[in-house]
Amino acid sequence: MAHGPAKGIGRWLFTTNHKDIGTMYLWFSFAMFLLGGFFAMVIRAELFQPGMQLVKPEFFNQMTTMHGLVMVFGAIMPVFVGLANWMIPMMIGAPDMALPRMNNLSFWILPFAFLMLSSTLFMDGGAPNFGWTFYAPLSTTYAPDSVNFFIFAIHIMGASSIMGSINIIATVLNLRAPGMTLMKMPMFVWTWLITAFLLIAVMPVLAGAVTMMLMDINFGTSFFNAAGGGDPVLFQHVFWFFGHPEVYIIILPAFGVISHIIPTFSRKPLFGYSSMVYATASIAFLSFIVWAHHMFLVGMPVGGQLYFMYATMLIAVPTAAKVFNWISTMFRGSLSYETPMLFAIAFVILFTIGGFTGLMLAIAPADVQYHDTYFVVAHFHYVMVAGSLFSATAAVYYWLPKWCGRMYNETMGKVQFWISFIGFNVTFFPQHFLGLAGMPRRYADYALQFSDWNMISSIGAFIYGAAQLLFLFNVVRTIRSGKPVSEPKTWEGAEGLEWTVATPAPYHTFSTAPVVK
Amino acid sequence: MSTESSYYVPEQSKLPVLAALGMGLMAYGAGSWVQGGSALVLLAGALVMVFTLYNWFSTVIHENMAGMNSAQLKRSYVWGMSWFIFSEVMFFACFFGALFYVRVLALPWLGGEGGHAGNDLLWEGFEPAWPLMTTPDMAVNGENAQFMGPEQHMSFPGWANLLGWLPLWNTIVLLSSSVTVHIAHTALKNSNRAKFNLWLGITVLLGAIFIVLQVEEYIHAYQHMGLTLESGIYGTTFFMLTGFHGAHVTMGTIMLLIMFLRGLKGHFSPDDQFGFEAASWYWHFVDVVWVGLFIFVYVLA
Prior knowledge:
The complex is a heterodimer.
Chain A: H1 10-13, H2 18-46, H3 57-92, H4 100-119, H5 147-174, H6 187-218, H7 232-266, H8 273-287, H9 302-314, H10 316-330, H11 339-362, H12 364-370, H13 374-404, E1 406-407, H14 410-436, H15 451-481, E2 483-484
Helix pairs in contact in A: 2-3, 2-4, 2-15, 3-5, 3-7, 3-13, 4-5, 5-6, 6-7, 6-8, 7-8, 7-10, 7-11, 7-13, 8-10, 10-11, 11-13, 11-14, 13-14, 14-15
Chain B: H1 15-34, H2 40-65, H3 71-110, H4 119-122, H5 136-141, H6 166-189, H7 193-224, H8 232-264, H9 274-299
């Protein structure tokens, strides 16, 4: 096994190498990011002015639905699996992932799943149009025919996630280098261990939800039909039992990445490592018992609303512990502001804003006003874009030199950061105002008083979108002709086993395990 | 936990991408089949899957017999199977959760309890009960209802009819099979291969008997009790919970049958038998699920 990669396309189709598979995950997720981004551009172009401009309302609904599905399941989840594949074995001193063939299967399911999901756009009756949360009965009684392909796409994506997570847990629990106890593991490994547990716990529940839909649509069952004694609200309970842990699945690995980048560029060890571990675990536990805060308006009993309100607010405690730890890490550190650090600092600020708006939404009586408005859209884009995606971008800049042995263009990176940062805030900050003023989400048209902020938001979205093309250009340019680097440590403040191997990382690392003191 | 000198990382393999192709074909085929298309793509995908899985498992078995698997690698397989079973637990939890939600909350609300959103006006005259024989649709529309409740249900028929109650026999069959598979396991550990083959064979037979009885129960429900997938939420939860369990019993029986055949070929040794152990864990798991089903679907009405 001490040899390099195979030649030609077979290298990628038949590989068992964690770095190859990580690379494929990263490129796949970037392709999906561009596709989902294109859908977002259609949405913002339509909303640039009031009235129907470019697309029909039915198609607008397909765009919002596909944007959400592609971004959540195609872009954000796979990008962190890609990072996990690349980095976890190198961080814990393992020769590869624990189950390398199953690892390749987990990846190759995704192109099939998303080919099928995207092809629904060209089917009779159009693509799914019921929102990424696919509430029944919109997604059952009133769904387009293509819903069946959507259901099976979700099934195989779920299988991919479950296999990927089993692999990560087996790797982390079984393949750590001698001396690397659990409480010496890098934070990224910790956050992924907990994320993998969340995934195995909730992806089967999502499979159950779409199976119930499938049966209601095609086989006459009445899970979500009150006429037969079922309840459409049952769908929401099942969906959000998956959906709430899902948002932590999306953000926890991002926390992990940030917990590496901030210490590196502060030239200080992470402040409060063990509290970070316990905070991550607490967040994961709480994520299972707060799901109905997405459903304050379905007619829950007051006792239920109160419980879900307080339980949700509790999450702010471990999350705040993390934010304070990142700030304390920077405090009196020797800071420098390379591109990954800029994204990381922006992450801390913008994610905190997203967290605070989350607290506002958690207040059940206030949510009566905010529910299903653009305030919610602004809230979750602050955590998903400025949270997860900023962190993924930071991770790519941070580890790209290690991956390919070439340095990215720092100026271009900083330019991309500032355009992204400004574009993002111009897009989403005004959406808070729109939501508070009462503009509902998922509508193709709006009342005239919302015109100004919508136009500004659309301009911001185009700016943010353009910045991602600059990112693509910078990465491709780095890989093809970036300045070669060869020191094991790209960043002087970086710590961890991944910085002890050669740069670029050899095809096989740690065939014999290092010893961790 | 510590990494030993060499962890076997397999060479390139065509199996994963073939399996992904099989799953993709099955997903696309199932999508077109449920809406009235041909089942050809679905079957083709299933064939690719069966071919791939057969070769995949053969490869793994050969690697193990060739001594390529260190104790550490074997632990990876153990972790893999454990977490796979955990994912199955969560899948069933989803359907049990739906059952509890409907029985404890949704039906009383539909009957007007708590003054929820005028449900009592929408479904006037609906009386919540479990098993639900009269659907809300029937309460309002009578004979014109789309969702007609069942004529009879499967719940506990009273002590007098106990011995003629199929679920009880199913419970006895399945619980005994958990015991027999354990006897087989112990025999294997004590190098008593004849005993291992015998008791594993009995386990497979009990699994097959369970499936036959379950099919018998379904035929009876459809033909004589008016209990179908379409008879409201009772039929829905009854068939979905017992049906997914039945599918898992079928899977488990196939696994154990393969282990039985492998045992006849002389595979497994007293200290290396994880293939069999994994199948037996799966079997105990479907057994536990059945106990939950027996209590919450059949007994507690």
